[in-house]
Structures are given as structure tokens and as C-alpha cells.
Design brief:
By secondary structure, the protein is α/β, with parallel strands linked by helices. Helices cover 41% and strands 18% of the residues. The chain has an eight-stranded mixed beta sheet with strand order 7-8-9-6-10-11-5-12, sandwiched between helices. Strands 13-19-16-15-14-17-18-22 form an eight-stranded mixed beta sheet. The longest helix is centred in the N-terminal third of the chain and has 20 residues, at 74-93.
């Protein structure tokens, strides 16, 4: 007896009558693939698969796919299938069980037809011709191995201007093996990280459909150079068979689009596009010189890449402020605490100068400077960095010409990278001497010596105060305080709570100009509160900076209580002229200006009580 057909598989009634019922089950399945760990962070513990989805829906994989034959269910199943396919492609990208991932993509998502168009084929077809041209002994399966492709398919121009086949160096190999979703790469110079990432992104576009890859450079010249010398050159020098298989549909000065609907482009911003791969080069430099552009990248470009996609941010360190510094410190903190990373957490990598085997020269009869002997000994005993004589000689030769810049350009440790002097900083030389003379340390407040205060009174800005005790010809910086959004009565309470025995309070000249509410000048308000300010004379900004530089040689800082103020002094720097590419002759006004301006009040107004005078301003005393 035959069974009447109902239009459903095997004549059975449909398990799901509406797309909404099926969508609820699909959502339940994807949710079950994630668990919350002990840190309340969700992590994926079960891979997305069509078979797993079918089982969760209570049917076979074939029965589930039969729902795509009904127009009402097609969008629901198409979206679910796309999510599973994206997971499989990401799994392949991360290099885990590539053979299994490729099998999954080919058998479940027709990956052969979509992503290997004209690259795969029957014996003697395009693959055979391509591999014969590359290496007649190479198996066809090699082309499915991303690491093999990176080391065999692409050409670059080396430092000597020679065309050579690209092959991963030790640092690039180490990075490749440990790549995460979000990657922060703090490094010394010349490891070839950007070259590696340009080749990696090009490869992802050539061998995957519908990919959008973007690379951000810190200026237009670098953007054009990355595209022309790294991406376009590598593409143009691919084997002819592969070029025929992946022709460029569009080719501009900064963008390549391929026949598989994948695109790679380079620029100074990526706000408008949705990306699967994003690389930001020299982000520390962008944060330092172009803070507004850095903010645009963080709020714009980083938001074009969704969870589970790929971001790589690399840079040398550029001082201890800005997004790059903050991102690195947060990632370092998470690593030290042993936190499990989510897809939206950055993993930090550090590659020092000593990891580049080119950084060595044969030893002649060179004698290391005494300071470097101690430096290398500390690297070994404290940080476990063991150097041979050729590496130490290379470093010493470089150090002889680059001096303090070695810490920024060729750091040995992450901490050293961020402790390096800031390019364009006004007090860089003075603080290098302070560190060498160990004048940042812990010491007690002397109860019998009065405490003087030195102010910068901001207008709708942070108010900064330095606290000092003068002992002979030594100025002991015992404390620093910075705050905003409060009136002068708040600072009067703060002074009282500190419990110091005060000497003088020195204010900048503009205390008579700006009002602090109530129609009175700040000076008048201070007098009523019992703060008897002395007022510094008005000097040009250059003279104020020179006064601060001069007085720094007499200063010793309390390590625990002045850390934020010191950070401000070290980061007080010249403004950058983007059009001319030079430092301007005026300071950059940012958060570091406040502690620096307060310190300049001390530079101009301080007088040694032993009658040894650095600067004797015409001061006026009120009250």
C-alpha cells in the first residue's frame, strides 16, 4: 500500500510550522555552544556545525536542509548556515585542523565552487599547472595549507632592493602560531610585522570569498608605500596561473578587488567599511602625534570589525599615555592575572631587538661601557634575557649614536619600551638624568620643615598642585594632587586633610583674572578661605619651561605620591605640525599641560631659603 505524499520529507507532517518556531530552536542551539567561565566571561566551548544544529532541532541534517525548499523558511536557514560557515572559515584561518576544516567547508558549504574557482580542478587543470610552475614535486594539497602558501607563493623586495621569495622569519613565525582574534604587538624596529600582515591579508582575500581586509597607516605616504611595495608587488609577482585564477576586478592606488568578491585596501581611516581583517600600523605614533585621529580609529575602525574577526595593532612604544599604552597595560594586566580571553579581549605580544638575529656584529676588541655592563647583567638576572657578545656589541654600537632613543626604538622589555623618553618631550634630558641618579624613591616627610605648594589653576580644566620641602639645595617633591570640577573651597579642605605644616602657596599670574564663581577673583576667594597666595610674575612660555628645566636638577621625587605628576612632566611635549612634518615651537595642550604648568610655577617662583636664588620673580603678596 503506497503512502500519500504530503510535500514534506517522507510524507511526514512538518516539525516546525512557522519560521519563528525554527528560529527559536536555532537561537537555543547557538546559545548552548557558549558557557560562562569563573570570571563571568562567555567563551565558546562547542563549535557551530550544521550537524549539531540538526540534532538540536530534532532531525537529520538532510531533513533540516530540506526546509530551504520552502520559501518562508529559506532566509532563516540561510542565515544559520552562514553563521556555521563563518565559524568554519575562521577555524581554518587560525590554522587548527586545517584538513578537517577544509573538508567541512567543501562538503557542507560548497566551498570548492565558491572559494577555489579555477584554482582547483581535475588532473592537468589549473592546480596542476600552478604547482608544476612553483615546484614540480609539490603535492596539490599544499595549496590548501596556508603556512605553505605564505612561505612559497609571495615575493617581496628586501632591504637591499632585491626581489626575494617571502618566508616567515622567527618573529613572524612565532606571531603566526599564536595569533588570537584581537592582537597587540609591542615591538622594536625592523621585525617585518607589517610586511607579514600585508601578505597574510592578501592571502586571506585570494583564498576566501567575500572578505574585506583593511590596513591603516599613520600617514598617507606610508599607506601608499604599504599598498605599492608590499601588497601590489606581492600580487603582481604571483605565478601566472594564480593571477589568471584570481584576476583583479579593480585596481586603484590603495585597493585591490578580486573575482571572488574579496577586497584589500590601505588608508589612514576605515570608518565606513565592515571588515573581517584589520591591521593598524604604528598605532602608538598615531596616538602620540594625532590623538584625534587615534580616537577616530578607536570609535570608527575598531567598530567595523565584529567579535570573532581579526585585528592586529602593532607599534613601537611612544610614551606612557594614549590608547595604545592603555590597551597594552590592560592586556598585560589580564595576562598576569591569568584571565581567560574572550573574542573581544586583546592578547599582547612583545618582540625585543634581541629576537632579530640580524642585530649582531662580530666582536673586535670593543670594550663595553661600564653602564652597559650593568644593564646587560640586569637584563639577564631580572628579566632572563641572555645575550651573547655579538649582540651586546651591536647594542653598544647603536647606543653610542642613538643614546636614549634606544629604549624606544630597540627596547629589551615591555616596561623599558614605555619608560623611554617621549619624542618631542621638553624635559626628556632632565628625567634621563633623574633616573640615572636614582632621584625617584621613597622618603618620609620632614616634620620640622614647612611644605610649600605650587599651583596651576585651570579655567574649566584640571587644577594641579605640587607639594615640596626645601632642604638646603635639595627640593624634595613630597606630593602631587590633580583634580577638576570643584571650587576653591574643595581644595582648601584637601589642604587641611593633608595635615602638612604649610609655608608659602604660590599661584600663577592669572589667578587675578579668572573667576571662581560668585563674581570674585580666585585670589579674593582664596583670601577669604585662609589661603594666602603669593603670585608669580608673568613670563613667556619658553622662559617658564627653561626655569622648570633648571630647577629639575635640584629635585628628588617621592615615588609613591608623585607618580601621576611625574607622568605628566615626562609627557609634556611640543605640538606636532602634520603638514610640515616637524615639531612646532609651542607646547601641545593636553592633560600633561596641567602638572607641567604647576611645575613651571615652581620653576619661576622658587627661592632657596639659603639665599641661593635660581629665579627671583617680582612677586606680590596679598593678605
Amino acid at each position: 500500500m503506497s503512502r500519500k505524499r504530503t510535500g514534506q520529507p517522507n510524507g511526514r507532517p512538518p516539525m516546525y510550522k512557522t519560521p519563528e518556531e525554527l528560529q527559536d530552536k536555532i537561537d537555543e542551539y547557538f546559545g548552548s555552544c557558549w558557557q560562562t567561565n569563573s570570571d563571568s566571561i562567555k567563551i565558546q566551548t562547542i563549535p557551530y556545525t550544521m550537524t549539531g544544529l540538526a540534532i538540536a532541532c530534532g532531525m537529520s541534517r538532510r531533513a533540516l536542509l530540506d526546509y530551504t525548499k520552502k520559501d518562508a523558511f529559506l532566509p532563516t536557514l540561510k542565515k544559520a548556515k552562514a553563521i556555521c560557515q563563518r565559524y568554519a572559515e575562521e577555524y581554518l584561518f587560525k590554522g587548527k585542523n586545517q584538513a578537517g576544516a577544509i573538508f567541512n567547508l567543501k562538503n557542507n558549504y560548497a566551498w570548492k565552487d565558491k572559494t577555489e574557482h579555477a584554482i582547483t580542478g581535475p588532473e592537468g587543470g589549473p592546480v596542476g599547472l600552478l604547482l608544476e610552475e612553483i615546484d614540480g614535486k609539490t603535492s596539490k594539497t599544499k595549496l590548501s595549507d596556508r603556512l605553505w602558501r605564505l612561505n612559497n607563493l609571495y615575493y617581496i623586495v628586501n632591504e637591499q632592493g632585491q626581489k626575494i621569495k617571502f618566508a616567515l622569519n622567527p618573529v613572524q613565525t612565532a606571531l603566526y602560531k599564536h595569533l588570537w582574534f584581537l592582537n597587540l604587538i609591542l615591538k622594536s624596529r625592523q621585525h617585518g610585522i607589517t610586511t607579514f600582515l600585508c601578505i597574510l591579508f592578501l592571502d586571506a582575500c585570494l583564498f576566501n570569498s567575500n572578505i574585506r581586509a583593511g590596513i591603516i597607516a599613520h600617514n598617507r605616504e606610508d599607506a601608499e608605500s604599504f599598498f605599492k611595495d608590499k601588497i601590489k608587488f606581492a600580487y603582481d609577482n604571483l605565478p601566472p596561473t594564480l593571477l589568471d585564477a584570481r584576476p583583479a576586478q579593480s585596481d586603484s592606488a590603495r585597493e585591490l578587488s578580486f573575482s571572488n568578491n574579496s577586497t584589500i585596501r590601505v588608508g589612514t581611516s576605515m570608518r565606513s567599511a565592515t571588515l573581517q581583517y584589520l591591521h593598524i600600523s604604528e598605532f602608538g605614533k598615531i596616538c602620540r602625534r594625532f590623538p584625534d585621529k587615534a580616537k577616530e580609529i578607536v570609535t570608527g575602525a575598531l567598530n567595523t570589525v565584529h567579535a570573532g574577526q581579526f585585528i592586529a595593532i602593532e607599534s613601537t612604544a611612544e610614551g606612557n599615555e594614549g590608547y595604545f599604552f592603555d590597551f597594552c597595560k590592560a592586556a598585560q594586566r589580564a595576562e598576569r592575572l591569568g584571565h581567560t580571553l574572550s573574542q573581544l579581549d586583546f592578547r599582547l605580544y612583545f618582540y625585543g631587538w634581541h629576537e632579530d638575529q640580524r642585530n649582531r656584529i662580530p666582536v673586535d676588541d670593543f670594550i663595553l661601557p661600564r653602564s652597559l655592563v650593568k644593564y646587560f647583567k640586569d637584563l639577564q638576572e631580572i628579566h632572563g634575557v641572555n645575550l651573547d657578545s655579538e649582540q651586546m656589541t651591536w647594542y653598544a654600537k647603536k647606543w653610542a649614536t642613538q643614546g636614549d632613543d634606544m629604549h624606544r626604538e630597540h627596547p629589551s622589555t615591555p616596561e623599558e619600551a614605555f619608560e623611554a623618553s617621549v619624542e618631542g618631550a621638553y624635559f626628556a634630558t632632565q628625567f634621563e638624568r633623574i633616573y640615572k641618579e636614582n632621584r625617584i624613591l621613597s622618603f618620609p616627610v620632614e616634620s620640622g620643615i614647612p611644605v610649600d605648594t605650587w599651583w596651576d589653576i585651570g579655567y574649566n580644566d584640571t587644577n594641579s598642585i605640587w607639594f615640596t620641602q626645601t632642604v638646603g639645595r635639595e627640593i624634595r617633591i613630597i606630593d602631587y594632587y590633580g583634580h577638576s570640577g570643584e571650587g576653591l573651597p574643595y581644595y582648601k579642605t584637601m589642604l587641611d586633610d593633608k595635615g602638612y605644616r604649610y609655608g608659602s602657596h604660590m599661584a600663577p599670574h592669572d589667578i587675578n583674572v579668572h573667576e571662581w564663581g560668585g563674581g570674585k577673583t580666585r585670589l579674593e576667594t582664596a583670601q577669604q578661605l585662609g589661603i594666602q597666595f603669593e603670585v608669580c610674575q608673568k613670563l613667556p612660555k619658553d622662559d617658564q619651561i627653561n626655569a622648570a628645566r633648571t630647577i629639575l636638577k635640584y629635585c628628588t621625587f617621592n615615588e609613591k605620591t608623585t607618580r601621576e605628576g611625574i607622568r605628566g612632566l615626562e609627557n609634556y611635549r611640543k605640538a606636532w605640525d602634520e603638514k610640515k612634518g616637524v615639531w612646532k615651537d609651542k607646547p601641545l595642550h593636553n592633560w600633561a599641560s596641567n602638572p607641567a604648568d604647576a611645575f613651571m610655577t615652581m620653576g619661576v617662583g622658587h627661592t632657596f631659603r639659603s639665599n641661593v636664588v635660581l629665579f627671583r620673580p617680582k612677586r606680590r603678596k596679598y593678605g
